[in-house]
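From the methods appendix. Each design record in this collection lists the tokenized structure first, followed by the designed amino acid sequence. Records were kept in a plain field format so they could be parsed without special tools. The example shown here is representative of the layout used throughout.

RECORD:
FOLD TOKENS (253 positions):
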């Protein structure tokens, strides 16, 4: 009986070599059933002593494990002939898992993944708290700048307005330290040519140019852009766009 199962398996292998679609025939199913019956018959005497309470009943757990293993073995053997490429990939993965000794229980893997997810959620929560703290500091800084330079009105880009206020404060501090000019209340000089600080504030939308400053900026913007725009087009763009054109040209120069 022990030699019958290998004989049936060899017969099935040889028949598959001769018949292309042998695994789809009734004879293949009969051979698979016979192989499974032989395997169960060989397992019966060995499993009988385990169940001492019922000597006549075979071990249900042992039979179940054996049947599952035999079913996987049969499916893998069929796959070798029906799709050799998938069988080869499956074999490589099995050998890799055996070599790495990474055959873990699915329940253990689920617990590990739950732990990783919990750690990731904690890190995300910490990052959110840090971001909120930075936003509070940013708002406090912008509020302090608005109190220091109230003449510059707030625009859509709060950071650009804040940088314009910092630049104005720095310029006024330099002028006060050198004694060349008194500290002014706002960066709105009456000169025709606007200062770089006034251009930065205008580009941020914090101030508006006077008529004389706008006329000068229109001419300057036409020159730095190579006369790509007409005066009407520049005026339609607004003071902020004209100031940005001039500042960008000075940065690239």
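DESIGN:
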């Amino acid at each position: 009986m022990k030699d019958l199962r290998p004989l049936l398996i060899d017969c099935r292998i040889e028949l598959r070599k001769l018949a292309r679609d042998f695994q789809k025939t009734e004879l293949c199913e009969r051979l698979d059933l016979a192989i499974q019956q032989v395997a169960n018959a060989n397992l019966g005497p060995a499993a009988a002593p385990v169940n001492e309470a019922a000597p006549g009943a075979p071990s249900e757990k042992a039979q179940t494990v054996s049947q599952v293993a035999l079913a996987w073995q049969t499916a893998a053997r069929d796959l070798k002939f029906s799709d050799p490429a998938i069988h080869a990939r499956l074999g490589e993965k099995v050998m890799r898992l055996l070599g790495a000794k990474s055959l873990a229980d699915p329940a253990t893997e689920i617990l590990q993944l739950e732990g990783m997810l919990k750690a990731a959620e904690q890190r995300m929560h910490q990052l959110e708290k840090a971001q909120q703290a930075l936003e509070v500091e940013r708002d406090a800084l912008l509020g302090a700048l608005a109190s220091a330079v109230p003449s510059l009105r707030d625009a859509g880009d709060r950071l650009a307005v804040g940088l314009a206020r910092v630049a104005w404060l720095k310029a006024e501090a330099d002028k006060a330290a050198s004694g060349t000019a008194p500290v002014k209340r706002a960066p709105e000089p009456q000169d025709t040519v606007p200062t770089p600080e006034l251009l930065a504030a205008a580009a941020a939308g914090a101030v508006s140019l006077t008529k004389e400053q706008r006329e000068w900026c229109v001419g300057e913007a036409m020159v730095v852009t190579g006369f790509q725009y007409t005066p009407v087009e520049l005026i339609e763009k607004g003071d902020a766009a004209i100031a940005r054109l001039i500042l960008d040209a000075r940065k690239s120069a």
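APPENDIX NOTE: The longest helix spans residues 106-148.
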